[in-house]
Amino acid sequence: MGRYDALIYVMQRAADKAARRLQRDFGEVENLQPSRKGPADFVTVADQRTQALLYEELMHARPDYGFIGEESEPDPRDINWIVDPIDGTTNFIHGIPHFCISIAVEDRGQIVAGLVHDPIKQEVFWASKGGGAFCNQRRLRVSSRSHLMDCVIATGCPFAGHGQTAPFLKSLNQIMGKVAGIRRFGSAALDLCYVAAGRYDGYFEDHLKSWDIAAGLLMVTEAGGLVTDFGGKDTMLDSGQIVAGNRAVHPFLQENV
Questions:
Q1: How far apart are alpha carbons 51 and 143 in whole angstroms?
Q2: Which of 108, 106, 126, 128 minimizes the C-alpha distance to 118?
Q3: How many structural domains does the chain have?
Q4: Which is it for the CA torsion 205, 210, 216, 218, positive or negative?
Q5: Are residues 100 and 178 in the same domain?
Q6: Per-residue confidence of the chain (257 residues) as pLDDT tens digits?
Q7: Cβ count within 10 A of residue 79
Q8: CA distance 109 to 112
Q9: Are residues 135 and 152 in the same domain?
Q10: How many whole angstroms separate alpha carbon 179 and alpha carbon 124?
Q11: Is 126 in contact with 23 (CB distance < 8 Å)?
Q12: What's the CATH number where 74 sits?
């Protein structure tokens, strides 16, 4: 038994319950009534309902924890749940089947457990500090590709009211001519899980929130990869900057973002 097995179980049970409801909601996505939370940043009934369910389940199991979620004001304590009820909301409300539930546990500034549940593909990524990273029951390792021309890199593009286009295009121009391809799928949490699984070789993005990346960054490190901010430091949750990859690709990305 691992040190954080009980937390993984709590997160799994909460995410399973929320995922069943999201599957139903996604099947009736045309009936959802999205409202605007900001320019091109939508919040749906499903977002709010999913977070409420997760809050109830997680806080019932650990009432002494704080709660930091996308759809509510933060209530931080020494140990916190960090929750994104739907990472990839824009995909969700447009009927694109690429989104997930992301849950992490932060203990005094360190992410010690995380879980990312993709309800459409029925993949559950989970990791604990010192315990490795897994997809369902399969152990994850970052890719071993070291030649850039063989590597696929994921990112997130600036959009209306979010991010700056010029710096992003400069980084993209420096990277895309040297790699096999660039992907932008619209879920930071899944991007990081895919790096951990070796599907992507690296990932970079700016202007993220802690709930976008908290669980995913642990997946990458526990799968043998590197995760830093653009300057090579461990400020990702505060700065919103992230560079992730295997040990050959990470330095290249960091130099070019």
A1: 33
A2: 126
A3: 2
A4: positive
A5: no
A6: 578 999 999 999 999 999 999 999 898 876 666 666 654 456 788 899 999 999 999 999 999 999 999 999 999 999 999 999 999 998 998 889 999 999 999 999 999 999 999 999 999 999 999 999 999 999 999 999 999 999 999 999 987 667 789 889 999 999 999 999 999 999 999 999 999 999 999 999 999 999 999 999 999 999 999 999 999 999 999 999 999 999 999 999 999 99
A7: 15
A8: 9
A9: no
A10: 29
A11: no
A12: 3.30.540.10
105: its two tokens: 């546990």
Question: Same structural domain for residues 28 and 91?
Answer: yes
Residue numbers of the domain that contains 41: 5-139
Q: Do residues 73 and 126 both lie within one domain? A: yes
What CATH number is associated with residue 229? Answer: 3.40.190.80
Q: What would the two tokens of residue 85 be?
A: 């009820």
Structural tokens at position 149:
């021309």
The token duo for 24 is: 């139903």
